[in-house]
Amino acid sequence: MGTAGSYGGSSRGNVLTPSFVSDDDYFPPAAAPSEGEADGEEGAPPREDRLAAATAAARASIPVDFSRPRANFTTFARSGGHDRRALGRAASSYVNAAGGAGNAARHMGASRAAGSSLAAFLADAARSGVDEALRTLNLPGLAGRPPAEIFAALTDVFCPDGGTIDEAIAREAFVEMIIDLSEIGVADIADLAPERMPEIFELFVAHAIEARIENDIAMKAVAVPANTDAAQRVQDVLCDFIRRAVQDVMVRADDLRELAQDRIKEWVDTVYAQAFELLRVLGDEEAR
Fold first, then answer.
1. Where are the alpha helices (DSSP H) in the chain?
2. What is the chain's mean pLDDT, rounded?
3. 155 CA to centre of own chain
C-alpha cells in the first residue's frame, strides 16, 4: 500500500503519547533526582536528558492494542475494498485504540512538524508570492522552477531523512503530495495561486494520516486482496475516505492564508486532531 509498506508494520507494538503528555516537547514533571544526581554535581546528566528519559519510560509503559482495528481492516482488505462497514469499524476503532483523536494526532509527531513547516511556507507564499517565500528559506535559486521541483527540494528541508518510521511517514506523505500536484493541475509555478495553497496542505495531511494508519494496522493486510486490482481498490477507497475527512476539516478551519506565523503550529495540531475525530465519526456512520 504505497511505499509505506516498507516500514515493517507494527509487529513490535505501537506506543502512543500518553494523554497526560501535552505535546511533542515532552516535559512532564520530573521525579526528584536521586542522591548524587542533582544538577551541578559531577557526573549528573543534564535535567533535559533526565526529563527525556523519564518521558520515554512513561511512553514505553503504555502499549496500544491495535488488534481490533487491524482485524477490521483485514476484513475490509479481504473484501477487495467493498466492505465499507469493515472500513468504518477499522477507522473508528483505530482512533479509539489510540486514546482518542488528540492522542492519535500526537502520534503524528514528524508529520505535524513537517506540516507546520509546509503550512508556514504556503502561508508566506500566499501573502508574498512563491519567490519571496523561497528567499525566506534561503532558496532563491528555486524561483521560477516547476512546482514539483520546488517541493522536491523542500522535502529535504521540511522532512529530513532521519531513519525512524515516524520520519519516513512524513517524508512519504510529502512525496505523495508532490505526485498529486500534477493530478490536480499544478504543473506550472503560475498555477500556485494563493487560493490553492490550502489544497496543497490538505494533500499532505491526508497522505500523512493514510501512511500512519497503514503502518499501524494495514501492513499484514497488503497480501490479503485476491489480485492487484483488488489491492489497488483497497488503497483507493482508504485514501478517498481519509481525504474526505481532511477536506471537511479544512472547509471549517481558519484560512491558512490569513494565519499569523505564531498560530501555525496550533492550527496544524487542530487540523490533525479534528481529522482523526471526523474519521471516528465517519467510521461509526459507515459501520451502521
1. 47-60, 67-78, 84-97, 101-106, 109-128, 130-136, 147-158, 165-183, 197-213, 228-252, 264-287
2. 81
3. 15
How far apart (Å, rounded) are the C-alpha atoms in residues 207 and 111? Answer: 10
Give the distance from CA 182 to its chain's centroid: 22
Grid cell listed for 95: 482512533
Domains of the chain, residue spans: 17-63, 66-287
Rounded Cα distance between 142 and 256, Å, is 23
Cα 265-165-162 angle, rounded to 5 deg: 75
pLDDT score at 28: 31
15, pLDDT greater than 60:
no
Give the pLDDT of residue 275.
Answer: 98
Contact 147, 189 (CB under 8 A): yes
Q: How confident is the model at residue 118 (pLDDT cuts 50, 70, 90)?
A: very high
Query: What amino acid is encoded at 137 in this protein?
Result: L
**What's the rounded mean pLDDT across residues 160-171?**
89
- Name the nearest CA neighbour of 147 among 159, 137, 155: 155
Which residues have C-beta within 8 Å of that of residue 78, sequence separation ≥ 6?
221, 224, 225
Question: Contact, 208 vs 111, CB < 8 A?
Answer: yes
Three cell numbers at 269? Answer: 495540531
Model confidence over 236-277: pLDDT tens digits? 999 999 999 999 999 999 999 889 889 999 999 999 999 999
| Residues 6+ positions from 21 with CB-CB distance below 8 Å | 28, 55, 58, 59, 106
Write down the pTM of the prediction.
0.78
Instruction: Check residue 184 and give its pLDDT.
Output: 82
Cell of 66: 491495535
Residue whose C-alpha cell is 500512519: 212
Euclidean distance between CA atoms 242 and 155, whole angstroms: 22
Q: Looking at this protein, which amino acid is placed at residue 226?
A: A
